[in-house]
Every structure is written in C-alpha cells, then in structure tokens.
Amino acid sequence: MSLHFIAGGAGFIGVNLAAALLDRGHQVLVADDLSRGTREAMAPLESRNGFSFVEVDCSDPDLIDAALGDRQIDEVWHMAANSDIPAGVADYRVDLRQTFLTTAAILDVMSRRGIPVIHFASSSAIYGDHGDRAIFEDIGPLQPISNYGAMKLASEAQLRAAKEAYLERVSVFRFPNVIGVPATHGVILDFVQKLIRTPDDLQVLGDGTQQKSYLHVSDLIGAMLHIADRNEPYAVYNIGPTDEGVTVRFIAETVRDAFRPAAQIHFGEGNRGWVGDVPKFRYSVDKLMETGWTPELGSTDAVLRAVREIVAQEAP
Amino acid sequence: MSLHFIAGGAGFIGVNLAAALLDRGHQVLVADDLSRGTREAMAPLESRNGFSFVEVDCSDPDLIDAALGDRQIDEVWHMAANSDIPAGVADYRVDLRQTFLTTAAILDVMSRRGIPVIHFASSSAIYGDHGDRAIFEDIGPLQPISNYGAMKLASEAQLRAAKEAYLERVSVFRFPNVIGVPATHGVILDFVQKLIRTPDDLQVLGDGTQQKSYLHVSDLIGAMLHIADRNEPYAVYNIGPTDEGVTVRFIAETVRDAFRPAAQIHFGEGNRGWVGDVPKFRYSVDKLMETGWTPELGSTDAVLRAVREIVAQEAP
C-alpha cells in the first residue's frame, strides 16, 4: 500500500482520481487551495479509509513541504491548474501561478524529499492549431495559443529537465476535453446554468459548428491508471476518444432535450468562441490505443452521459 | 528613428546588440539588473548619442514599468536570462526567475503599454538530444534537459500565446553557442582563467571529444538584424554556423597555443561536461540560409578570433 499525493485533488479530475486510487487500496492525500475545488466535491471521499486532505496553496513549495509533515509520499499526481481558459486570457498571472508555478513548486518539494514519481495532467492545448495534420505526441512545432496551453507546455518543459536531474519516472497525460461530474466549468455546465437562469432560451457563443471530441472522466481516469501501470521512465500520451467529436450544436440540443425541451436555441456568429479556442482538432490517440487501451464511451455517448449527470448535479 | 528597449542589455549579447542598433541610428534603452552584465561592459556605449541605461530587475513588471516612465518604446529585445547553465541545474529558481519570469514580466509591460514588437533570445537548448536527427525549427518532441532550456521553451510558449492575444510581431532566435567579447562565461573564458591561475596546466572536464558548433557574436547580431528586418509576424529561426563544429580538444589547444604554449592539457573522462550538456548536435540553419543569410565565420574561425579577443580581455 503506497501513499499518493494529489495536488489539486479537490477539483473535477482530482476527486475522480482519488476515488479510483482508494479503490485500488492506496492511501490518498489530497492537497488543494479550494480556489476552484471544493470540500463539497470531496464529500464522498471524506469517510473512506486512507483518505486525507490538506488545504494548501500548491504554488508555494515551503507551504507544501510544511503541509506534508513527516509523511512519506510514494507518487505525486499533479492535477493543480487554472481550468478557466478565458480567465487566463484576461490575466496571464492566473495561469502563471496556478498552472505553471504549481509545477515548479511541486518539483521543488519532490527534489527536496526524494519523491521519485510524478504523473502530470498536461493538455491538448500545448499543440495549438495544426490545421488538417493529425496531432501525434511528437509533432512540431508546439504553438499554444492560450496562456493555459503555454503554461502546460512550460510545465512539461520543466518536468523534462527534472527527469534528467532527479526524477525516476514521469507520466505526461495530454488531456482532451473531459466531461462528467463534479462539474465546475465547461460548455455543458454553462448551458445547464443558462437554462436555469432563462428556461426558454439558450444563447450559444459562436455558430454551433465548432467541433470537439470529449472524453468522459471515467475513461480519462482509466487511461491515466493504464499508463501509470506501464512504468515507463518518461511516458507521454495523448488521451482522448477515437472519434472526431461532436459539434456545439449537438451539445446544446442534448442539454435542451434533457433539461428544457421547449427552450429555443440561438446561435451567434463565427466558429471560435473565445481567444485560445481551436476550432477543429485532429487529435491522435493511436499511441495509447497501441498499448491496448480503448475508451468505453465515444464523444456522443460521453456527452449524453455527462449531460444527465450535470443536470442532476445542478437541478437535483 | 525609433526607440529600442534591450532587457538584459548589459550582458554579452546585449552590449553587442546595443552597439549595432546605435550604428543603425536608433535610440537604445538598456535595462539590466547588473547581476551578470556590468557597467564596465557598457563603457563603450555610454558616450554614444541615443544610448541610455536603467538599472532594474526585469523579472518584476511594476519595476520595469516604473523605469520606462513616459518613454514610448517601439521594439523590445529580450536578452535577459541566466547564462550559467550549471547554476540553473543546482537551483531551478535561478532559471525560473532570470530566464522565464523576465519573459512574463516583459510581456506584461508590453501588454499594458501596447508595445507591439518583441525579439527574443531563445536557445538551441529547447530541443534536447535528438541523436542523429537534423534539428529543424519544427522538430518534435521538444525535450530540454536543463532548467535553462526548459525556461527558454516556457518563454517561447508564453510568447506564442501573447502573439495570439496582443502582439503584432515576434522574432524567436534560437541561439547556438555564441562566443566573443565581452565574455562573461563559457568554455574559452574558463580555459583562459584556468591558465591565469595555473599557467603550466589546463584541466579539461570530459575527454575532449565533445563537439559543438560556435558562432561569433558579430555573426549572431547580423543574423538577428537580418531576421528582424524581414518583418515576419512570427519568425522562428535557428541561428548558427553551417559546420558541425569543433571539439573541446581543439578549443583547449587553441587557447593553450595563443596564451600559454608551454602548458600541459589534461583531459577527464566521458563526453558530457555536466548535466544538461548535449554531447553532439545536428543543428540545421537551412531555414535561415534560405533567406539569404550566411555567417562570415565558421566554428573554427570563430574560435580562433574569440580566443584572441578573450585573451586580450583577461590578460591585457
């Protein structure tokens, strides 16, 4: 039985990961500053054997180190990040501190304490817009167009240098758009909340043709554990569904049908919702598939399931 | 006549760049915290028309902004960085603050003030070890093995996102090993200083077979101005000589012959001098050559000239 430390563990991915690690019989220590994650999200974990939580700002190595006390950490899962891309566009310091300086601080603590293994939640946003080219893990050039993507790439760069110097094992998971509960952000939650405020009318940013692939969080956690179990010294994998995704129109209609069947949907213009949002994306998960992993849900089924879950979360 | 701001302008590259910009009739404002650059290095610039200097920590946007006062900056040249790779290996905070947070701070100030153009000194160290593959600008994956290279890559990532949001024009120069005066670090200076301390004996780290290409700073400045003059919206270029370089043995012998002909050279073992030092490197400058640029000096001539200059600097 080993002790896993999850930085940012009170967030959407973190609480799902914590549950899965507890299911495997590990001890789990979650660290979170509760700026985005919540105690409420961790409620189902609190009573479980082996779970503990510390409230700490993971961008400060001294605070993390103090919070760890004399615990011996075996593996680190770094899920701490700003997940609100537009907030990072408005103020670069959000991603600088929450997405990048957390990486610097966590690596600092790992170096001091000799913690040998880290698993990192990177992002498909490191790639930027490659037009029609399929996006494999080793594609170049890397051209993130949001501060969020830039700070995820900056984090990967520092992990790579740390691997050379002192780490034994690194996993870099390049996340797709992930959906499920507890939802804290994202297009489905946004639509559900809009329909709570204005039940007859759903305003959609952009013309609805924007297409993205979505992975359900249950498949994401499965992929992360699958990759971690391979024990590669430096594992870099795209994670995602195998389809080319669904449109914003499909998501809007699914939310409407599940929640407010009588509502009217109104689309805007253009196929970009905000700066940093890439319209279409040929994200290859061939490398991961070749290791024997397959997602249980494609984008369509992931959206259908997540819409049900998020409607239940927001309008119980 | 326009005003060019050089961050880190009291360093080796910065003072050579400042002189070249003054030669072109521009005004030049150098900012430097003098942690590595010196007033002595700027002495030949002080009396020239259009030159001014402010002592400021370029990792703090408020300090930069205050130092700029009501000056209207037309173009920024970001040359501020830790240039001591082993120092960054020993303490990641050195490269974090001096190499990366300078980029974040400078971009912050540019955003606030609407300064539209930046030229950035990146590095071949962003690529890492690619074995026998030729290193073109768009190669992947990027796998820096030093904190220095990681923080240069992190800086490029942030520049790319800033270009999407508010910058008009960006140049990214991926520097090779650059030699010349005023030398503040590097293998030639190291050997000359060793021979000042122990005139009969030169101890060399590694077995001397390590091979690198070197560009003389005069060719580097020429290449930077050549690229900047092309006015590309987002220019990324490797800069370097066209040869595959010279060995450490050649450099040691050249320094010995020029400075202490009777000294004995003693080599160590292995072909890596320190963590983060890539043994051999097939760095392609084809993209730059195709724009009509050629270096005046190959690695051999660059070393011969720099050795003379650095010997004169250290033992005048």
From TrEMBL, chains A, B:
Membership in a protein family: Belongs to the NAD(P)-dependent epimerase/dehydratase family.
Pathway: Bacterial outer membrane biogenesis; LPS O-antigen biosynthesis
Name of the molecule in the record: NAD-dependent epimerase/dehydratase family protein
Residue stretches making up the NAD-dependent epimerase/dehydratase domain: 5-240
Pfam family, one: Epimerase
